[in-house]
Amino acid sequence: MGRKGLGPAGMGAAAMGAAALPPRPAALLCVWLLLGSSWGPGPPGVGAVPRPTATYVLDAGSGLGRQFDGIGAVSGGGATSRLLVNYQEPYRSQILDYLFKPNFGASLHILKVEIGGDGQSTDGTEPSHMHYENDENYFRGYEWWLMKEAKKRNPQIKLIGLPWTFPAWIGKGENWPYDYPHVTAYYIISWILGAKQYHDLDIDYIGIWNERAFNSKYIKVLRQSLDRLGLRNIGIIAADGDWNISKEMVVDPYLNDAVQVVGAHYPGTKTVPNALLTQKKLWSSEDYSTFNDEVGAGCWARILNQNYVNGNMTSTIAWNLVASYYEDLPFGRCGLMTAQEPWSGHYKVEAPIWITAHTTQFTQPGWSYLQVDGHLEGGGSFVALTDGLGNLTIIIETMTHNHSQCIRPPLPHFNVSPQRATFYLRGSFYLVETLQVWYSRLDFESANSILFKQLQPLDVWRGSFSIDLDVDEVYTLTTLKTGRKCSCPEPPPPQPFPSNYKDDFNIRNPPFSEAPNFADQTGVFEYFINGSDPGDHVFTLRQVVVQRPITWVSDADQTISIIGNFHWVNLTVTCDIYIEKQDDGGVFIAGRVDNGGIYVRRTKGVFFWVYADGTYRVTGDLAGEEVLMKGLSGVRANAWHTLTLNIQGASASGLLNGYPLWENVTISKPSNGWAAIGTRSFEFAQFDNFHVEAS
Questions:
Q1: Are residues 553 and 687 in the same domain?
Q2: 211: annotated active-site residue
Q3: Catalytic status, residue 143
Q4: Which residue, of 80, 149, 177, 382, has the greatest Cβ tally within 10 A?
Q5: Are residues 429 and 387 part of one domain?
Q6: Where residue 382 sits, what CATH number does that domain have?
Q7: Among residues 114, 286, 294, 526, which one is catalytic?
Q8: Which residue range forms the structural domain that includes residue 86?
């Protein structure tokens, strides 16, 4: 027999309601009603508590709602998976399993990746497949690898590509990708074709330009170009910002035909009339973006349901997939899970993973929502979906206002209170006798949340059942018996970044184009084979972006890649450097670097620069405006030199080729930060034998 009650209400009591009970004597029924209509025990020592009751009817026969398109997450926008690739096995595969493996963890239906464009896109840059017009390389970066790993675990997962930035040649001197729409379309389609040719990846959807202006002409050109190449199955999502494109779509039938999905970001669970008039799929194509604690989980639980209940959105995609970037960069830990320590192997399966599982493990793209108002009378929401073959899944959330605020937009106040919900199953669902039950309760007092726990099955009596709902809970009630909460072995404990770290970049066939743990913040630093050097510098790290890309945010005018522990105070950085740009070229090594990501232009630290004209500078900022020391160094382009920067307390000194060049420079701020390397401008330069020692 199934369950007729779920333990104490503090554990989420579910009970059979009056409509679900067999006939009983009238006197007994009166006593039961007076005691609060609660079937099953209340909280310990409290007894039954009266709850307001509301009824909801689920019937596929009265018509279906929109088709469900899946739940997904974004890798990129940018460099959010940067550290993931550096994890050793088995930990890397465990993380990937939690994200993508069906009936295991998050079991995502959709993976959206950044089409790297060499520019800063939130937490770093991602390399383009075409740095220059005549350059093509479909093995740069890690998104190709990530898509293949996702497909390996779930062959049905949908893949989306979206650019944040573009290489400079697209704009032909302008910071704008739309002046030459055929050029931009060629660039994007090259990425799609490269995914298939080199990685056997079929891209399902393509975007326009993340959260920036859309261009109707470009969208039409892209659609025509895709169709001409036989890529009609690839849908265009537009415009990955607000809903404004729908205004044009309803008056421009050619634009409307070109777009398959109207995608909005952070819509606050609401759509607009024009979007509905397009008669297109409506998605929240980026959402969440919230610190992944219990409040982040509450945000995610609420919008996963209410994006459809309030806004008719049939897909919700989280930014970001996994917080695998240095936590002190912008939006630290805003992923569904956290994996930011490849050097230790430590990772954490955060609460949003299990909130995701409440939907993804019991639905699939192609299922349909039932046509029902999903607002619960006591606050909260529910959605009901069916595969059309008799299966039914109901997801209920009762997130309270203060425990479900997303990072944006502001959340209007609302109330949620304990309640009883009685569901009547009609039509083909009337035959359902038992529902599997999965339960989560977010605990904001003692941090003892219950996450994705399987409870005893719930009996359905003559097509109805009741369930007692407390606040900040999630229930999945389903006919499917395939749910699973995986429990991999515990990962290793957390450890800080190694205080003594070296990299000589001596690798002939690297698995990835970027050296481990370096996080590019402006420019792109790639492994390089220096065929012209017969000596010790055949294998190096090279900065390869030589023109400012079409930017998404305010990239720095200098290039920079950070590494290490943000909390480092005293450190010595040593690196061999090679300036390639004659006359006005220059490079730096740095310590106590305090910023990156979208704030990279305001980065402070201790920067030791040498220039091709034979001079040097010490500055307190990346922009080079705060000069602490300057003089002659004798450094020239096209020769290797060794720079050493030593920072101890309030004093810094620098060595060139092992000999003191400057010393006793007073440092007042910042007090801590990463190590870094970089260049004076967008220019070629090489680095080798990097070493940092911190205390």
A1: yes
A2: yes
A3: no
A4: 80
A5: yes
A6: 3.20.20.80
A7: 286
A8: 64-478
